[in-house]
Amino acid sequence: MTKKTIAVSLSSVVALSLVLSACGTGSNTSSPAATTAASAAPKKNVTFSIGYATGDPAGKQAIADAVAAFTKANPNVKINDLSEGGMASYLDWLKTKDAVGEFPDLVEMRDTQLFSEAGKIAELPPEWLALFSDAPKLNGKNWTAPIVGNPPHGIIYSKKAYADAGVTAEPKTYDEFLAIQEKLKAKGITPITFGGKDIFHWGFWVNKYLMDNVFGDDPNWNSKRTKGQASFTDAGPMQAMKDFNELFTKGYVDKGWASTADNQTASMLVTGKAAQLFSGPWMFTQISQADPKFEFGWYPVPDRKGRIIVNGLNNIQGWSISTKANQDADKKAAITEFVKFFFSKDQYSKYLKAVNGISTTKEAITYEASPQMKRVLDVMADSKTIKSLQINAFFGDNQMPPQWRNWYYKLIQEWLTKGDFSEAYMKRADAEWDANIKANAASKK
To answer: Signal peptide: which range, if any (predicted)?
Structure first.
C-alpha cells in the first residue's frame, strides 16, 4: 500500500465586533442586542463515527457512557458508534471497515504503525498532545492519545479456592506458582480458566512467557528476528512456549478452553468452576458485578529467576483521528472537543474507575481503587518491577508483522489440539514472520 503524506490545515477563528457610535457621547460601545444574538447563535450540527475494541465489557460500557454524556451536553454533535462484538480480531474488524469505506473518524488504534504507514490516521492535533505527560512517538510523530496506561496481567484468584487447597501465600518464584497448581488439582479444583474462544485472549499467557524469557532481557529482539539474527528456535522463545504448553499438558487449564469466551471467564471464577484467571485489572469490575460478595486477590506471576516482569511500558496505542476526518474542519473540531471531554478530570476518573485503569494525563487523576487495584498500582510503582511491551506492541524497527500475531495464536491452538509441540512449529513461526516482512515491504513499493 502506498504511503500517503497528509497535509493538515489548521482553521482559524475570526472574531467579528460590531461597533456603534453612542448618541451625543462620541464613545464606542458593543450593542447588547448584537451580543445576545451572537451568543444565541445555534452551533453547527456535526456527525462523526467512533470505533473501539469491545472485548472488555466494562471498557465498552465506560466509553459508551462517555459518548452519551458528551452528546447530552452537546446536542449539536451526533456520534455514530460503529463498534461491535464478534469473533473477528479488532485488527481484522478495522480492516473490514476500511475495505467497505467505513473506517471510523475517531478510532481506538492498536496497530498504529500499520495504519499510520497506510495513511489512514493523521498526526495528532496539538490540543490533544497538551493533555498528556508522555505520548510516545513513532517516526518522530504522535499518532495516538493514550487512553489508559499499559495494565499488567496477573493471576486473579479465588481466596476460597486457595484456602480449600491449603495455599497460604502467594508465590515468590515460578516453581512456587506451579506448586499451587498442583495443590489445586489435588483437591479436584480446576486451576485456570482460559478464554480460548476469543483470539485476543491468547496474548495474555503467550506474552507473559515471552516477556519472561525474551523481552525482559532484550527489548530489541523483534528487530533481530526481522534481520535474521534471532530465531523462535532459540533458547528463550523455546522455553517460553514450553512453559506455556505445560499449562495445558499438565491439566492446569480448564479443558473447555476452546469454547470459553473471554467474557465467560469471570463467571467461571465466581461460580467455582476454576480457581484462577490470568488477566488484567479491567476484569475486577466484571468479577465484582458477577458476585459482589466474591473474595479474590491479584498478584503478578514471577519468572523462573523470581523476577516480576509485566506489560507496563507506554506504547503507541490510543485514540487516533482518521486522515479523512482530520481534513474536515467541523469534524476535527467536534472530535477534539470529545477527546478533551473524555480526558477531563470528572469524566476520565469515571472511566478509570470503571476499567481499573492507570491515568495517562498531565493532570493528576485519582479514584477510589479496590484492594486488588491498589496491589496493581503498588507493583507498577515498585522500582524492582521490570516493565516490558508485548510482542505486538513494539514499534519502529521492533515492529512485529501485524498479520503474524493471530496466525501464531492459531498455530499454538494447532499444536495444543494435536499435542505435539516441537521445534518444527517454531521453525514455521520463523518462516511466517519472514514471509510477512517480505510481503509488507513489497506492498509499500
So the answer is: 1-22
C-alpha cell at 77: 454533535
For residue 304, give the amino acid letter: R
Check: CB of residue 306 under 8 Å from CB of residue 300: no
Q: Residue 53's closest CA among 20, 18, 84, 21?
A: 84
Q: Which residue has the cell 507493583?
A: 379
Question: What is the rounded CA–CA span in Å between residue 215 and residue 222?
Answer: 9
Comparing CA positions, the residue from 54, 48, 103 lying closest to residue 74 is 48
Cell 495443590 belongs to 183
362 CB-near residues (< 8 Å, 6+ apart):
130, 131, 132, 133
Q: What residues are paired with 320 via a beta bridge?
A: 107
Contact 194, 244 (CB under 8 A): no
Give the CA angle between residues 365, 286, 299 to the nearest 5°. Answer: 75
List the grid coordinates of 431. Answer: 518462516
CB 351 within 8 A of CB 358: no
CA of residue 372 relative to chain centroid, distance: 20
Q: How is the chain split into domains, by residue range?
A: 45-149+315-364, 154-311+379-443
State which CATH number among 3.40.190.10, 3.90.550.10, 3.40.50.2300, 3.40.50.1390 fits the domain covering 45-149+315-364.
3.40.190.10
The CATH code that applies to domain 154-311+379-443 is 3.40.190.10
**344 with 74: CB under 8 angstroms?**
no
What is the chain's pLDDT, residue by residue, as a tens digit (445 residues)?
443 333 333 333 333 333 333 333 344 444 444 444 344 456 899 999 999 998 788 889 999 999 999 999 999 999 999 998 765 688 899 999 999 999 999 999 998 988 999 999 999 999 999 999 888 888 899 999 999 988 899 999 999 999 999 999 999 999 999 999 999 999 999 999 999 999 999 999 999 999 999 999 999 999 999 999 999 999 999 999 999 999 999 999 999 999 999 999 999 999 999 999 999 999 998 899 999 999 999 999 999 999 999 999 888 899 999 999 999 999 999 999 999 999 999 999 999 998 888 899 999 888 899 999 999 999 998 999 999 999 998 988 999 998 999 999 999 999 999 999 999 999 999 999 999 999 999 887 7
Asked whether the whole model's pTM tops 0.70, one would answer yes
